[in-house]
Specification:
The chain is an alpha+beta fold. The protein is built from 9 helices and 20 strands. The strands form 4 sheets. The chain has a 6-stranded mixed β-sheet, with helices on both faces. The protein has a 5-stranded antiparallel β-sheet with strand order 13-12-11-14-20. The model has no long low-confidence stretch (mean pLDDT 93). Bound molecules: adenosine-5'-triphosphate (ATP) and magnesium ion.
């Protein structure tokens, strides 16, 4: 077992910097998810840990070894790719034991490990099949099995579920979480899917344009996004934003004036006149009556679109220039063009500096 440490790691392709001074500590036994939009550098970061890409600057440690100059086979990692990369002409058993045979491991130990992986992953019945005789989910399991049998210090997953359909993805997500809990192997898992990140990671690290934005537990990142990018990226439907100005313990803008409450109130003392973006999550913009004892304000929205999901309904409506989304009671859906009064939970507001886009109140 071992943690993984990125210490001011940068990566250039030619003169383009695609990872900038990434510092991140993945703890021993931890399930860390690297999440961010396409092209932000997730795979590159992972491939540097695996030794498939050179590191341009900084150091990467696995356990207490600096691995920058170690070849991939000496790093004690196992990587699972999006394209399972199975050997098509080999059976499932041969795919699973190939790496171990190459290491000249004893047959009895190989059989023990392959047997155990097959059992954990429910592949016993398929050991003699070829990959083309398996479903996508089964192939994915073989790819994971190949990583397990090596009993590495670190698992690296690069979007391993994105080729699967939605329901299988949910199932494999649960399997991978269970597997990691059982094996307690340090894991770095890359995805662009924020739901996957939120549901799988002990902690998540949000990357944008090669720069680390925030690291924390899923809940901490959700409740206290460090900047506008993270606030927009994590959460569905995304957080709403209103442009406003601070003054006298309130934030005021087109169509609204909110008294500041909760942590925000204390944190913005002395900032009167500052331009801010007020973030309101759709679930904190509600069609119910205010909860007694919780500070609330009311805003009036003109409904433009109603999305019914069954378990909840999203109402899109206009307030001044801003288009807001609210989650409302599925049994009391307003018609399009109606005006609705919605409650804003003032102790759940997020405030961001309009210029720096950083969170103001912690
Ligand atoms: N071999 C390469 N040569 C030049 N540029 C590269 C190379 N590999 C990646 N890049 C660039 O580096 C940036 C980061 O790529 P990377 O594959 O790490 O992104 P990603 O976050 O994994 O994206 P995705 O979610 O689409 O897989 C991108 O702008 C990409 O075009
Ligand atoms: Mg990638």
């Amino acid at each position: 077992m071992a943690g993984v440490v990125f210490d001011k790691v940068s990566k250039f392709f030619g003169d383009v910097e695609v990872i900038r001074e990434l510092s991140l500590e993945v703890r021993d036994d931890e399930f860390m998810v690297l999440v961010g939009p396409s092209g932000c550098g997730k795979s590159t970061a992972l491939r540097m840990v695996a030794g498939l890409e050179e590191t341009s600057a900084g150091t990467i440690r696995i356990g207490d070894r600096v691995v920058n100059d170690l070849p991939p086979k000496d790093r004690d990692i196992a990587m699972v790719f999006q394209s399972y990369a199975l050997y098509p002409h080999m059976s499932v058993r041969e795919n699973l034991d190939f790496g171990l045979r190459n290491k000249k491991m004893e047959r009895a130990e190989i059989d023990r490990r392959v047997g155990e992986a097959a059992r954990i992953l429910g592949l016993d019945a398929y050991l003699d099949r070829k990959p083309r005789q398996l479903s996508g989910g089964q192939r994915q399991r073989v790819a994971v099995g190949r990583a397990i049998v090596r009993q590495p210090a670190v698992f690296l997953f690069d979007e391993p579920l994105s080729n699967l359909d939605a329901s299988l993805r949910v199932q494999m997500r649960a399997e991978i979480i269970g597997l990691q809990r059982r094996l307690r192997t340090t894991t770095i898992y890359v995805t662009h899917d924020q739901i996957e990140a939120m549901t799988m990671g002990h902690r998540i690290a949000v990357l944008h344009a090669g720069e680390l934005q925030q690291v924390g537990t899923p809940l901490a990142v959700y409740e206290q996004p460090a900047n506008l990018f993270v606030a927009r990226f994590i959460g569905t439907p995304p957080m709403n934003f209103l442009r406003g100005r601070l003054g006298g313990g309130r934030v005021t803008g087109a169509g609204f004036a909110f008294d500041l409450a909760g942590p925000a109130a204390g944190a913005v003392g002395g900032m009167d006149g500052r331009e801010v973006l007020v973030g309101v999550r759709p679930e904190n913009l509600r069609d119910e009556r205010p909860i007694a004892g919780r500070p609330a304000a009311t805003v009036r929205l003109r409904v433009e679109l109603v999305e019914t999901l069954g378990y909840e309904v999203h109402v899109h409506g206009r307030l001044g220039d801003a288009l807001l989304v609210a989650k409302v009671d599925p049994h009391a859906v307003p018609p399009v063009d109606a005006e609705v009064d919605l409650v804003v939970e003032l102790d759940r507001l997020h405030l961001f500096d309009a210029a720096s886009e950083r969170r103001l109140a912690q």
